[in-house]
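Researcher: Structure prediction, please.
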Amino acid sequence: MPDHAHRLHAREIIHRLRESGHEAYFVGGCVRDFILNQTSSDYDIVTSARPEEVMKLFPRTVAIGAKFGVVAVIIDNHPFEVATFRSDDVYEDGRHPSRIHYSTAREDVFRRDFTINGLLMDPDPEILLIMSTAVLISTIKLSELSAIRKNGSVRII
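Model: Predicted structure follows.
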């Protein structure tokens, strides 16, 4: 399935979540790929909806990491990971938190490292939310990103 179809399905997921009163954004690799003007087949979504709410909104879901707030929404046999905003307790094994708490977008970004994983993208209108340490640093209209790419300034992000 081409990137365009994956992107449309991912946007449909975000729209349904928002129509149900939840926040929802793209996160992770698809944001990186969009910034670099590359195609992506991996669209991850982060939302204020809890896993049980996500599972009620979509006909085909799999609780792939419900303990960590992650549900796969299946559209045309393609899984889209939908994760609930969360904050984490201590990492006893260095990799997995001992417990999670559902939270806000700011708190969710705070637990992430300051890499592409800390960038949230609003697909309507396409705006990149650059967040770090729970503070919105900047927004960039993605329609202006081509000028940034031409100048080689993507590295500042």
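Model: Strands lie at 24-27, 44-47, 61-65, 70-75, 78-84, 86-88, 100-102, 119-123, 126-132, 135-141.
Researcher: Thanks, that helps.
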